[in-house]
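re the bet — no i am not wrong, look at it urself. input seq straight from the record:
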Amino acid sequence: MKILIIGAGPGGYETALAAAGRGVEVVLVESGPVGGTCLNEGCIPTKSFCRSAQLLEQMGEAESFGVTGLSYGFDFAKVVARKNDVVEQLRGGVESLLSHKLITLVRGKASFKDPHTVVVGEEEYTADHIIVATGSVSASLPVPGNDLPGVLTSREILDVERVPDRLCVIGGGVIGLEFASVFNSFSSEVTVLEYCKEILPRFDSDLSKRLKQSLGKKGITISTQSQVLSIEQDGEEYRVNFLRKGKQETVVADKVLMAVGRKANVDSLNLAAAGVEFTPKGIAVNDFMQTSQPHIYAVGDVNGKMMLAHAAIFQGLVALDHIMGLKNSIDLSVMPAAVFTSPEAASVGMTEDECKEAGVKVRCLKSFFRANGKAVTMGETDGFCKVVVEEETSLVLGCHLFGPHSSDIIQEACALISRKTTLEQFRSIIHTHPTLTEVLQSAVHQ
């Protein structure tokens, strides 16, 4: 058996490694650096920025912890250099893993010649099964001025030469808020424009409202229900014109970040030649990640189901198991998500609003970081934990966190929800004291 995988991001290279580990020959095609968006211009470099921002905040708060006499500065060039070093180190690790004897890494842009043939440069490749894992690219609002030099994507803002004095972020989703939080810590004057009623529209509404309030206290201006009309350049400044509640307003900034989501990267694949169906949201797939051509699969951002690196990895495993005729217990509906703002936010399972829409009666149990001993010692008491429990069955359906290390704490809830845990079973789990995970224990014992 031979598998051809297009794209060496998390969905592609992790699937290639898993297939090779099972003795399957793999041809892996990649037109850019291995690691995809996540490693090179997404998850990893932004988290490097987040760490620098966190340290900067902590240094500023040192005196309140009795640490005095510190002298520190901020060198943005070194922040960028460290980010590049982190990316290069991890990319080198992936390249080393892909040197497996059963994996052939082909450099170049792939396109379909027919349902069974993929062309890369002047070479043609065929395989028993093909997996498309080409990821996504930044989307942009179709407004005048969206192509001006100071209007940046999430990739370009990672390499700015200096911190902008004023930054306007268009989009109050995960990407926009993470950069807003980071550059606020780096001393930018940040304004976020969001079209929807709340930021993070797909997250629990209590979490979204609380995060908006917290970011506002840090000095970030967030304007929701704001429709961007145009972007104009005036010398070195940019004027972002938007409509809010029937009134036109303007934000003046030195840089503008366009963070209105991402779209499936399919333009160069020539999917029509392969007979693969796709929509503006991405390649259409079934529960096994099969496309309209049963031997062709699509995993990760390119299918538009869930644009998260870990979703791509596990979708790849689902596809590989299906190819090899194996069953698994992976539940792709239980998918954790995190927002690396300061403080962090994280979510897994159903929100309270989703339960109401589905007609499911639930109880929502809450606890607060201000009552958590470890959070108090850390001086990070802003936030809460919300556990959603079905009344009839007592099953834990969702968990939503806002506070320190939420991205780590959510994993316990993810494991329990995926294993259909009841409230009583959750309550019986002993947690170490003092730890931040006790916010879960405190919530379920309400």
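see?? The chain has a mean pLDDT of 97. told u. also The radius of gyration is 23 Å. so pay up
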